[in-house]
Every structure is written in structure tokens, then in C-alpha cells.
Model the fold of this input.
Amino acid sequence: MSRFRSVVAGVGSYLPKKVMTNDDMAKIVDTSDEWIRQRTGIRRRHIAADSETTASMGAEAARRALKAAGLEAGDIDLIVLATTTPDLTFPASATIIQSKIGMVRGFAFDVNAVCSGFLYALATADSFIVRGQARNALVIGSETFSRILDWSDRTTCVLFGDGAGAVVLRGEPGAPGMGERGVVHSHLRSDGRFCDLLYVDGGPSTTKTVGHLRMTGNQVFRHAITNISSAIARVLDDAALTVMDVDWFVPHQANQRILEGVSKRLGIPEERVISTVAEHGNTSAASIPLALDAAITDGRIKRGDLVLMEALGGGFAWGAALVRM
Ligand code: ACO
Done:
């Protein structure tokens, strides 16, 4: 039986200042604002400045989440960073963030589950807290996808952007029962048979380069709707809850059509779906905490609300999580 539960104590996010609109994109590749908006819902994305990295953006989101939680770096004993675009092949960018925020205790590491990375990081940090191996954890999603895009490939470069989001998890005594705040349940899946539908064509042990993102978009789209829907059904089932119990649906912000497809399939009312994809495009592991922060800041998500998160990305790796805020 678990002795602790992981309560969300604070959320923060960071988007680079530089904004690239769909019209800006149309100056680089053969596309249009109309095509991008109709197929994806994306209006603009943020692009990291030369001086910004995954760790610098992640550190800024972490500082904001700590402030919201009323905690300091010295109170944190674990950082789990979800990223596919680390500053360096090693050390883990989580340790760079650890140093940047002035945390000189505990431990920090990265997880790579691409767009579903935040859910993997959340489940990992939750396990450490539930077992009493960490008291307070920072779960961060931070990505600089602009650095791995092929800027001549219109089928991919229009979809992604840079950014970071962070959540402080605080260990509190007791299991997350009905009505109790905390991470209620999570469900993770992967299936490596589909790794050639969405991948980066480089890496240290193969090409010795970073590589560029490659994707068969329409096939990813189909798998996303089916797999995300089944992960949501599973996590609700495990928690003995239904869609009607969910106050807010905070999906990975990949594409408005995927959000709508999943919501329609599961009967999630449109007004309970948090969508920020128009503002920042697909920021991979950063997108869930970015959307969460936006909806907390504008007052929609309140303490005690039940939040359902989901994502699918390269691998494929996917999952869903239920969190009582
Ligand atoms: N501008 C204009 N035309 C374009 C562009 C563009 N940026 N990109 C592709 N096209 C063209 C294609 O060349 C094709 O032209 P053709 O018919 O003459 O051959 C046409 O548009 C249709 O292409 P499709 O790939 O079939 O378009 P689709 O409706 O599937 O939309 C999209 C493409 C938006 C990529 C969609 O498949 C998608 O969103 N897939 C999910 C991918 C995703 O979100 N991945 C992120 C990681 S995984 C995740 O986060 C869930």
C-alpha cells in the first residue's frame, strides 16, 4: 500500500519571445496560413533564440513552477526532464537544469518518450514519491524542436515549435482516493514496430549526427486517435471513473483535428477540452504542461478538478494520466 501521493503544488511554463506565424512559414516553404490552420489548427509557434536551449527554457519553467508552489530549489530532491532535444548527448539536461536553478541535493535525469515524454516523466516521478524515495519533484517537459526540423520539408516543419512547462509534485501522506488531490492513475504504452513512421534520421551511435525529424503524418494521425482513445479508456477503467467524472481534458497539443477526433470518439464535451495548439504548435514533451499552465492561469482549472491528460509520439510511445488538481 502506498504511503504517499503526489500532489500538484505548482505549474509554470516558458515560451521563447520569437514568434513565427504561418505567413512567416509561407516565406520559407510552399505552404499557406489557410492550409496549416485547416489541417492542424496551428496559427503560430515560438522559436528559441540562439542563446536559448532545452535546459535554459526548462530552468525558467521550473523557476516559475517553484514560485507557484511557494517552494525553493533547495526543497526539491528529484528532477525528471522529458526531452528529445537535449542540450548535449550527455550529461542529462536535467542535471544542467539542476545546476541552473541552484539545486545541490537529490538527483536528476532525462526521459525520452518524445511527445508522450511528459506523461512518462510524471509517472516516473510519481513512483519515486509514492515509495517515499523523493519528497518534492520537478517534472519538466522542454523541447527545442526547431533545431531538429528539416526547414525545407513543408510536411513537418510547419507543425512544431519550442517551449517548456514544469510541474512541482509534492509528496503528501495517504493514497489518492476519491476526491483526494494527487496523481490518481497513469497508463503507459509503447510499440516499437512503428518507429519508422516518426523518427529522427540521426544519432550518436548511427550517423554521429543529430539528424532531422521524419514523419509519415497521415499514418501517425490514424494511430494517434486509436491508441490515445484506448489509453484513456484504460486509465479511466483502472481508476473506476468515467469520462463524465473528468472536469478537464488536457491533451498533448499536436493537432486540433487529433484533439477533436479523440474527444468525439470518447464523448468528451468540447467545452472541457483545453486547446493551446493554435498559439505554439506541437512542442512535444512541453505541450501538456504548457496547456495546463495556461488553463490554471486563466482560471479554468481549479483546485480539486479532475484532469485527464494524454499523448502519443515517436516510438510509438503513448499514454494517459488522471490527476486531481
Ligand atoms: N502546406 C501545404 N500543403 C501541404 C503541406 C503544407 N505544409 N504539407 C503537406 N501538404 C500537402 C501534401 O503534399 C499533400 O499533397 P498531395 O495531395 O498533392 O500529395 C496534401 O497536402 C495532403 O497531405 P497529407 O499528408 O495526406 O495531409 P493530412 O491531411 O494527413 O495532413 C498532417 C498532414 C497535418 C501532418 C496530418 O497528417 C497530421 O497532423 N498528422 C499527425 C502528425 C502529428 O501531429 N505528429 C506529431 C507527432 S505525433 C503526435 O504528436 C500525435
